[in-house]
Amino acid sequence: MYYLLEKIYQTNIRRNILAPGLVFFLLKGATTSLLNSISQKYHINVAWLYVSTIAVAFLLSFLPYIFLKLFFKVKKVFRGDERNSIQLRHSIIDAMGKSNTMRLLLLSGYTMFFDSKERYIYDTLKRLRENDHDKKVMALILNPESKAWEHRAKWFIKEMNKTSEPAMVIDVKEYKERCYKIITELKKIGAKVRLYNNIPIWRMHILDQYVFLSAYTSKNSGHLTSMYRFAKLDVDSMHHSLTKYFDDLWFQCKKLDINKNM
DSSP string of the chain? Predict the structure, then answer.
């Protein structure tokens, strides 16, 4: 439902330009006959009638856009305190269900497994993979043996210890063990996992029609900052650029040898 309404919302304004011409092309004979008849009966210049009719058709074609603009608000930015909203949750689940390929750029996927507010993402991944093995899941995770991971881990543990179980973690050793457990669980459901060594900046869920983007900052983890929602159908969409960014990083990263690191 979200995808259908938004598709209408996003493409309607582009189709407005073509709508009047399309109507005239399809109903050329009837339209010409009708306008000529009106012109002769009321002594109105037929050229003026043609121009007026096109103008009216053009204006009427905006009605669906105006309606959706007024009554269907497409939310594209979710603040940190809105990350647990029903609208965002339904939007992500719906988009995941319609995707053949799901690309995940994560620090560790920790909150997706151990935070009840985001557990639905992993549960949806697992359910979709069980129902359709052709769905692809590509996960890029920060290498637990990298310096960038170690630096971020100390900060992350401090923040997680402000929350309640099961998200709490005692120390770096336990956090690393959990990170490898996450990788193992992802591979169990058929996800392809690769490790990157860069300092984590972006947290992305790239789906066929949408990208859900947030940032890792020095003060907040990616699941606490604002999330930006980019649709593939948006004019000048970031979807293509972010997908290319992910794919380039994917090919730069080494394939995961889980046994070597465990």
Answer: -HHHHHHHHHHHHHHTTTHHHHHHHHTHHHHHHHHHHHHHHHT--HHHHHHHHHHHHHHHTTHHHHHHHHH-----EE-GGGTT-HHHHHHHHHHHHT-SEEEEEES--HHHHH-TTTHHHHHHHHHHHHH-TT-EEEEEEE-TTSHHHHHHHHHHHHHHTTS-TTS---SHHHHHHHHHHHHHHHHHTT-EEEEE-SPP-EEEEE-SSEEEEEE--SSS-TTTS-EEEEETTSTT-SHHHHHHHHHHHHHHSEEP-HHHH-
Q: What is the pLDDT of residue 1?
A: 46
Among all chains, which residue has been given the structure tokens 């043609």?
50
Domain boundaries, the chain: 2-71, 77-261
Asked if 160 and 221 count as a contact pair (C-beta separation under 8 A), the reply is no
Q: How far apart are CA 61 and CA 67, in angstroms?
A: 11
Q: What is 77-261's CATH superfamily?
A: Endonuclease Chain A (3.30.870.10)
Query: 13, 6 in Cβ contact below 8 A?
Result: no
> CA–CA separation, 176 vs 154, rounded Å?
11
Residues of the chain with pLDDT under 70: 1-32, 35, 39, 43, 46, 49-50, 56-75, 80, 160-167, 218-224, 235-236, 254-262
